[in-house]
């Protein structure tokens, strides 16, 4: 019996913490926070519908048009638009008493990819 083969252990793979399989390192915290905020903002069917309208619009859309498009009150529509604005997905401007919305050309790449699927 050869003792050389019995005494040479097989190399063990390097692992990132864990016991069964190697796993990748976590995402940078800033990226994880950005993605979570984007997905949270997209996590409502009405907001998805709003983004569809904006993605297919040729001009900025008045808040009054969103109120007419959905069976929701103006405060609820404004809440949805504020959530999208805070996530950096849409921008707004005032024209007289009305607020107009459009997609933010500077939105994150993750938000842009999601909006591309919606529009």
Summary keywords:
119 residues, mainly alpha, Arc Repressor Mutant, subunit A, 3-stranded antiparallel sheet, 6 helices, 12% strand
Describe the structure.
It is a single chain. With 119 residues, the chain is mainly α. It contains six helices and three strands; from the N terminus they run αααβααββα. The protein has a three-stranded antiparallel beta sheet.
Strand order of the largest sheet: 1-3-2
Order of helical and strand elements: HHHEHHEEH
At the fourth level of CATH, the homologous superfamily is Winged helix-like DNA-binding domain superfamily/Winged helix DNA-binding domain
Output mean pLDDT: 88
In short, what is this structure?
Helix content is 51%, strand content 12%.
Topology:
Layout: H1 3-7, H2 29-42, H3 45-56, E1 61-62, H4 63-69, H5 74-86, E2 90-95, E3 98-103, H6 109-118
Antiparallel strand pairs: 1-3, 2-3
